[in-house]
Amino acid sequence: MIKNNFPIPNTFGLPVKARIFAEYSSVEELRDLLKRYQGERLLHIGQGSNLLFTEDFDGIVLHSAMRRARCVSEDNDHVWIEADNGLVLDELIEQLCDMGISGLENLSYIPGEVGASAVQNVGAYGVEVKDVIESVRAVAVADGAERVFTNAECHYGYRDSIFKNDLRGQYIITHVVYKLNKHFEPKLDYGNLRSEAGDKPTPMSVREAVIHVRKQKLPEVSELGSAGSFFKNPIVSREKYETLTRQIRDDSIPHYEQEGGIKIPAAWLIEQCGWKGKMMGGAQCYEKQPLVLVNRNNATPEDIVNLAAAICKDVKDKFGIEISPEVNYI
Ligand SMILES: Cc1cc2nc3c(=O)[nH]c(=O)nc-3n(C[C@H](O)[C@H](O)[C@H](O)COP(=O)(O)OP(=O)(O)OC[C@H]3O[C@@H](n4cnc5c(N)ncnc54)[C@H](O)[C@@H]3O)c2cc1C
């Protein structure tokens, strides 16, 4: 499918268009498109749930219509599942939970497709997708050559991977292989999952608990446009954290010790700056979760950009901490 001046799907609900929008159903079709449109500005999207389009896209937007998953290997303890890039991650998780296969259930209800989730290293409730990714198959934009990346070669970090840095825009992920578990070891230490998941948790009961908790906190994109958490949680040094507690005379700043420093919830910093519920044009800092920016009233891309910039500035001025967007600006 190839269309001109086509509306780009995006969960912010912004009325942006692609000069060319093309959907492919096989790796061969993808290669043909790459060849045909070589030299054009190119963007591959999933559901557009982590994108902020600042204007119409003057180039070609690609999307995958490959939506299958298959078991490629198994032993007594594990199953290796290979999924196509265009499969909706949550549909895959539902099917796996149904079969009692675990590893991805904590990531239930995160919008988006399999390919993008391996770019973004999506995470929630104490699990990141990198924990179960065995390898990633991709096609080079330059010449269509296939390359398999092992988990280590993906250089995964917090909402980060080599596909967002050194190899940004150079590869299109076509398949992801997950190593999943036949024996369930629930991860329930995060939030109130333990009480929500029941006495004898199963992958499906954990999935249902995660969905229940998420629905209370996050807006449904069908009702209120957003890209989920707009900002990353900053990680600061211990010295910085201690200076901060002295400076604001508060040792109850929420924080999590982790490799590389101390993580401070960006939502807390934003709330302290008084942004929770505030609007700029049609964009709003969501009243239930200030980490989320929403399209409250026909926001323009500019409204969202301006709101994000004002929040970053206030957090920097008040705490001396830089928060940066998790969302990709296009
Ligand atoms: C309500 C809501 C809640 C959310 N909650 C979470 C959460 O809990 N945790 C979390 O981590 N994220 C969360 N997100 C963010 C988002 O769901 C993830 O980042 C998701 O992985 C984006 O998937 P997508 O298919 O929409 O990708 P898109 O937004 O379309 O694309 C994201 C990036 O991946 C690139 N890309 C897409 N497909 C490919 C491919 N096949 N090959 C190479 N590059 C590709 C794009 O160019 C872009 O740079 C949330 C978003 C919303 C709207």
Topology (SSEs and partners):
Blueprint: E1 2-7, E2 17-24, H1 27-36, E3 42-45, E4 51-52, E5 57-64, E6 69-74, E7 78-84, H2 89-98, H3 114-120, E8 123-124, E9 127-128, E10 133-140, E11 146-150, E12 171-181, H4 193-196, H5 203-217, E13 225-229, E14 235-236, H6 238-247, E15 256-258, E16 261-263, H7 266-272, E17 279-280, E18 283-285, E19 292-295, H8 301-319, E20 328-329
Parallel strand pairs: 2-5, 3-5, 4-20
Antiparallel strand pairs: 1-2, 6-7, 7-12, 8-9, 10-11, 10-12, 13-19, 14-16, 15-16, 17-18, 18-19
Bound molecules: flavin-adenine dinucleotide.
Mean pLDDT: 95
Just name the CATH architecture of the largest domain: 2-Layer Sandwich
Please, how many helices?
Answer: 8
What is the succession of H and E elements? Answer: EEHEEEEEHHEEEEEHHEEHEEHEEEHE
Q: How much of the residues is beta strand, in percent?
A: 25-35%
Biggest β-sheet description: 5 strands, antiparallel
Distance between the termini: 23 Å
What does this entry look like structurally?
This protein is α+β, with helices and mostly antiparallel strands. 25% of the residues lie in helices and 28% in strands. It is built from eight helices and 20 strands. The chain has helices at residues 27-36, 89-98, 114-120, 193-196, 203-217, 238-247, 266-272, 301-319, and strands at residues 2-7, 17-24, 42-45, 51-52, 57-64, 69-74, 78-84, 123-124, 127-128, 133-140, 146-150, 171-181, 225-229, 235-236, 256-258, 261-263, 279-280, 283-285, 292-295, 328-329. The strands form six sheets. It has a five-stranded antiparallel β-sheet with strand order 6-7-12-10-11, covered by helices on one side. Strands 1-2-5-3 form a four-stranded mixed β-sheet. The protein binds flavin-adenine dinucleotide. Flavin-adenine dinucleotide binds next to strand 3, helix 3, strand 8, strand 12 and strand 13.
